[in-house]
Design brief:
The chain has 132 residues and is of the alpha+beta class. Helices cover 48% and strands 19% of the residues. The protein has 5 helices and 4 strands. It has helices spanning 3-32, 42-50, 70-79, 92-97, 124-131, and strands spanning 53-59, 83-87, 105-110, 113-119. The chain has a 4-stranded mixed sheet with strand order 2-1-3-4. The longest helix is centred in the N-terminal third of the chain and has 30 residues, at 3-32. The chain is elongated and about 60 Å long.
């Protein structure tokens, strides 16, 4: 077997692993939709328990995909007390409670139920919904 074949097989295997994990993550997130909000620890959990509608955005400082979105969500959270920005490096227990496994991820909550879990970029209509 030539070195080119070995490299090709290795690259194909890594790509398959990446796409497989991505699919698993999205399916797992989809399975959470419609379920009751689990117990979330700390002040965020107390606030979520009393919010009719909330948006919980998970980010990490080293996340390149988070960099363009985080300032927008932080600004929104200053205007809307039901928008939370959670740095997973400081609040890992909140991420675990909501089964967040990647950043950026955003969980929409309505009357104690998970409405939608967004993995990756947040659709602009979601931000608009919480801006008004």
């Amino acid at each position: 077997m030539s070195i080119t074949s070995v490299v090709g097989i290795a690259v194909a295997s890594l790509l398959a692993l990446f796409f497989g994990l991505n699919l698993w993550l999205r399916l797992r997130s989809k399975a959470m939709e419609g379920k009751p909000l689990p117990a979330v620890p700390g002040s965020i959990g107390r606030q979520l328990a009393h919010a009719n509608r909330a948006l919980v955005y998970f980010m990490s400082p080293g996340c390149a995909a988070c960099r363009p979105l985080t300032p927008k969500v932080k600004e929104l959270s200053r205007k809307n007390s039901n928008v939370f920005v959670v740095d997973v490096t400081h609040h890992l227990e909140v991420a675990r409670a909501l089964h967040v496994m990647a950043t950026p991820s955003t969980v929409e909550v309505d009357h104690g139920h998970i409405v939608k879990v967004h993995v990756g970029a947040l659709p602009p209509d979601v931000l608009a919904r919480f801006a008004g």
